[in-house]
Specification:
mainly beta, SH3 type barrels, 32% strand
């Protein structure tokens, strides 16, 4: 019997999919954005950039930026009743109003 893949991108076919007109494109503005510490952000994975990606389990989660670490940000999210810290590249974060 074949073995199931257990990689970081497994079971992410729908989450990592882009609309046909947007395939291969990546916003430079999104790559160079600066986020304020304490601001609310949503974790939206950008599939064209593999560096700094969190696990796809956290795709769509909303959290608070706690600190900047290099080019990435430390985001605090709640997973059930537990608080977790994710180190996420800025390409995979979007500001929430």
């Amino acid at each position: 019997m074949p073995r199931r893949s257990k990689g970081l991108r497994s079971k992410g076919r729908g989450k990592f999919r882009k609309e046909p007109r947007m395939r291969g494109k990546f916003s430079v503005v999104q790559a160079t954005q600066e986020l304020p510490v304490g601001g609310k952000v949503a974790v939206i994975i950008e599939p064209t950039v593999t560096g700094g990606q969190p696990h796809h389990r956290y795709h769509g989660r909303v959290g608070v930026v706690r600190e900047k670490r290099g080019r990435a940000y430390v985001v605090e999210i709640k997973d059930g009743g537990k608080v977790k810290m994710l180190v996420v590249g800025r390409e995979h974060l979007r500001m929430v109003a």
